Amino acid sequence: MKQKNLFYIIIASGFGTGFSPFAPGTAGAALATIIWIALSFLVFPFSLFLITIALIIIFTALGVWSSNVLEPSWGKDPSRIVVDEMVGVWITLLAADAGNVYHALIAFALFRLFDIWKPLGIRKMENLKGGWGVMMDDVLAGVYGFIILLGGKWLIG
């Protein structure tokens, strides 16, 4: 296997979590949540916010790119590609307070709920071509999770 292809596989599979025999999307989102929680204890809150935005931008671009490369051999939106779940949960985590594990777990649950249920146009995003279709449904699920988490925090105080 060429090193170039290995790079695409590592990125698309969420550092291998996409090869989980049970719920690979959940495994990818869980890894992203764990990374965010760890970072939340290591950096200042504003730095965490900026790092999370950087992760979203970088991994969205890498996700579209690697999905475009791998879809011809792996099939349309294969379960092994979980970088989209990582990006989606990071979007929802933008509404979580740094160091608040409960917020992180709620963000994870909200994202997975929207990702699995696919309401309000999320499913339509899958119709986009190539890597964009792979990524954008999870981006939108992440946005919905962000809105609900932010609204819930505002209501509760």
Automatic annotation (TrEMBL):
The chain crosses the membrane at residues 6-39, 46-67, 87-111, 132-156. The keyword Transmembrane helix applies. The keyword Membrane applies. Residues 10-150 form the YutG/PgpA domain. Pfam families: PgpA (PF04608). Keywords: Membrane, Transmembrane, Transmembrane helix. It comes from the Bacteria. SUPFAM superfamilies: YutG-like (SSF101307). PANTHER family: PHOSPHATIDYLGLYCEROPHOSPHATASE A. This is Phosphatidylglycerophosphatase A.
